[in-house]
Design brief:
The protein has 315 residues and is of the alpha/beta class. It is built from ten helices and eleven strands. It has two domains: 213 residues, Spore Coat Polysaccharide Biosynthesis Protein SpsA, Chain A; 88 residues. Helix 7 runs parallel beside helix 9.
């Protein structure tokens, strides 16, 4: 089974991390493997990519004519790919050497149309004491209790997701209403394509804990203000998702209710029996982040003509 791995990037300041991500893909144990590199409208970055990687066998390189966003870039990468399966990894993540091999094992053993794996935090600075593991999803990593090994889920994480290429393209690829475009972030990037694939095939994403990537978490991702803003835009993006896919019942509300009604009381009991400053700070962080998600949703709910305000990318 040939696999094509798509890696997208857009800024020179991300190049060192991007380069490490590409090297980790090139070092995979699985063969045959194709690597598709997409630069989002930055010629200076593309010159570096061309010099460092484009002469390597089975590496395909492309530069968008302008900044079109991560959703457009990943779909473009899948269109350029030739593998039966197309896998995605972020430009600030590093794949374990058996990452692709373990994704492929699920395709070969099941009738899966999409497979996602574990995304583990790789703090590039000291992990903040206040940061609760329940909010690892806020920084693109798998939170405790996310899914059981082999479980079918609605969608995986963008740093570790793969699809049967023909199904992915038939479903239309990523929705350009969502995803990073320069400094603009409408989140919930993975959910739309996975929803459409499920509507098309009747099957969701299979989660495998054996396929692992490590996601670099730079110091800004541990900044409390950044995390609050990120939470706000998660709530805003949830409302955008509700408008784009009104018939899709998401599980985000249930998870936030679980945090407030289960995790916070459990943690509070833990503080009573084994008090610590970090434990108290993490409870407060859960409450603040959850509140920010709610405020973001409310703000979007009260925004007239919301979808018209969401910048789209014309193909």
């Amino acid at each position: 089974m040939q696999v094509s791995v798509v890696v997208c990037t857009y800024a020179m300041e991300r190049y060192d991390a991007f380069s490490e991500a590409v090297e980790s893909v090139l070092a995979q144990t699985h063969e045959p493997l194709e690597v598709v590199l997409v630069v989002d409208g930055n010629e200076a970055v593309f010159d570096r990519v061309r010099e460092d990687f484009c002469g390597i066998e089975n590496v395909v390189c492309h530069c968008n004519d302008e900044n079109r966003g991560i959703s457009y870039s990943r779909t473009k990468g899948a269109e350029l790919a030739s593998g039966e399966v197309v896998a995605m990894i972020d430009d600030d993540a590093v794949a374990r050497e058996d990452w692709v091999e373990n994704l492929v094992a699920v395709y070969e053993d099941t009738d899966a149309v999409a497979v996602g794996g574990d995304v583990r935090p790789d703090w590039q600075t000291e992990k903040p004491d206040f940061f609760p593991a329940e909010f690892y999803w806020l920084v693109g990593c798998v939170e405790p209790g996310f899914a059981a090994d082999g479980e079918e889920i609605r969608n995986g994480y963008g740093s570790n997701i793969s699809f049967r290429r023909d199904v992915f393209l038939e479903a239309g690829g990523y929705d350009t209403h969502t995803g990073r475009r320069g400094d603009k972030h409408i989140q919930a990037h993975e959910a739309p394509v996975c929803i459409r694939i499920r509507e098309l095939t009747g099957r969701g994403v299979i989660y495998t804990e054996d396929a692992v990537v490590d996601h670099k978490l730079f110091d800004y991702r541990g900044d409390f203000g950044w995390l609050v803003r990120r939470s706000f835009w998660q709530g805003y993006s949830k409302r955008v998702m509700d408008l784009l896919y009104p018939d899709e019942a998401g599980d985000e509300t249930d998870y936030l209710r679980f945090l407030l009604l289960d995790r916070v009381p459990r943690r509070a009991k833990g503080v009573v029996t084994k008090p610590s400053v970090a434990a108290v700070l993490q409870i407060l962080a859960i409450v603040v982040f959850t509140g920010a998600v709610g405020l973001g949703y409310l703000y979007a709910l009260l925004t007239p003509g919301l979808l018209e305000k969401v910048e789209t990318v014309e193909e």
